[in-house]
Design brief:
By secondary structure, this protein is mostly helical. It is 51% helix and 7% strand. It folds into 3 domains: 7-106, P-loop containing nucleotide triphosphate hydrolases (Rossmann fold, 3-Layer(aba) Sandwich); 118-216, Dynein motor, AAA1 domain, small subdomain (Helicase, Ruva Protein, domain 3, Orthogonal Bundle), CATH 1.10.8; 228-259, no CATH class. The protein has a 3-stranded parallel beta sheet, with helices on one face. A two-stranded antiparallel sheet has the order 3-4. InterPro entries: AAA_6, DHC, Dynein_AAA1S, P-loop_NTPase. Belongs to the dynein heavy chain family.
Length: 260
Amino acid sequence: GQLGRFVLVFNCDEAFDYGAMGRLFAGLCQVGAWGCFDEFNRIQLPVLSVVAQQVLAIQNAKKTATQYFQFPGDPQNILLKPVCAFFITMNPGYAGRTELPENLKALFRGVAMMVPDFRIIMKVKLCAVGYVNFDLLATKFFILYNTCKEQLSNQKHYDWGLRNILAVLRTGGQTKRDNLDKPEDFLMYRTLRDMNLSKLVAQDVPLFLSLLADLFPSVQAPPKGEYPALEEQLKLKVAENGLVYHLNWVSKVIQLYETN
């Protein structure tokens, strides 16, 4: 215990039920570990109501220095090592997230986080991967995503947040390393287009391409990537499985390949 605590991180989702949560809590209590439940508000509301009672039982046992305790409705005695602790993280406002019940909120101390400055993150990341015009490109990147949030349709699968931004920046860095002789405006234009076009619904595509053209007026739209080896393998697999080599389908496969 002098050097640190063993921390287990659990990625929560809709499949978690109160039985699974009870087993996790019991295991953490018995080994004296800390548990971090990431995306905690993805768990279904009825399950969260039971979880509140489970957490309350653990806290009451710790307050009274009880060596063994029981969950409500469960006769099994559970060993409690008082050094165990539980932490939860959540992203309010995201699709598929649940508002925590008040009785569960009361059991945890809230720590508010500031929204990061995306423009600074873009600028630093672009500089780190070798872009010379990182300041101007970061500004264009930031304006594009802000405008997309405001003007494109509201789709559940659209993500203009930090997760998507970091994915684009990683791809932009790899593109820069692979094309040291190409203009940076051209590379950023292509990366932003290829990383986002595949997820857009048909009605949003013209507006998105128009925004890109406005932000990069001196850059001619980069040609689509060509992958002859991949396309040859696609043709073989299509013939092998008796499918139809449909151009729209091929385009989607290539877009998926490019984003990976």
